[in-house]
Structures are given as C-alpha cells and as structure tokens.
Amino acid sequence: MGIGIALVLLLLGATLALAVFRIVRGPTILDRMIGSDLVLTTALVVIAAAMVIRRDLTGIPVLVVIAATSVFATVAVARAVTPSSDPSDEGTDVATPERSES
How many CB atoms lie within 10 A of CB 35? Predict the structure, then answer.
C-alpha cells in the first residue's frame, strides 16, 4: 500500500505543478481559470484520499465548500467573458473591457 500511496502523491504533485504552470503561463483568463479549477480539483482529491486512508468523514464539509467555490468561480468567469448582447458594448474585446481601436 505504501507504493500505491507514493505513486498517487507523485501523480497529484505532477498535476498540481502543471496546473500552476497553466495559471502562471496564461495567456488568457480562460487558461488561468482552467488551471485554478485543476488546482481546486486536485485539492479535493487530496482531501478525499486522506479521508479514505484515515477512514474519517469529517472533511466532507470542506469538500463541499471547495467544490461550490470552484463552480461559482467558473460560472462567474464564464459570464464575464461571454460576449454581451448589449449594443452599447459593441467594439469591446472579450479579453479586455476597454474599447478596441478600429
């Protein structure tokens, strides 16, 4: 069982490193959101794995809060980058709210 736990921790560490790389590297807010979702998902998996190993269910509220935070953040970013149907927003770029020079 020790080798299995070490392998899982190694893979989770690699996942976390790649997610942080995606957050730092960008280049768009959507890339950073994918990276932060992956970080939160990795945290969920680590907490859930620790709960399974310890046979303890006290971390379930933490899992629910992290999952809800991830969902709300994803929805907020998706709404922020969705093009508006408001005619007064014509000429704005999706990545930046300033008016683009034409």
Answer: 19
Position 101 pLDDT exceeds 60:
no
Q: Minimal CA–CA distance to 102: which of 92, 84, 94?
A: 92
* 9 token code pair: 């921790």
Query: What DSSP designation does 93 have?
Result: -
Helical residues (DSSP H) of 1-102, grouped into ranges:
2-25, 29-54, 60-81
Buried-state track 44-57, b at ≥16 Cβ within 10 A, e below 16: bebeeeebeeeeee
CA 86, chain centre distance (Å): 29
- Residues 18, 22: Cα–Cα separation, whole Å: 6
* Per-residue model confidence as pLDDT tens digits over 44-99: 999 998 898 899 999 999 999 999 999 999 999 888 888 766 666 665 555 555 55
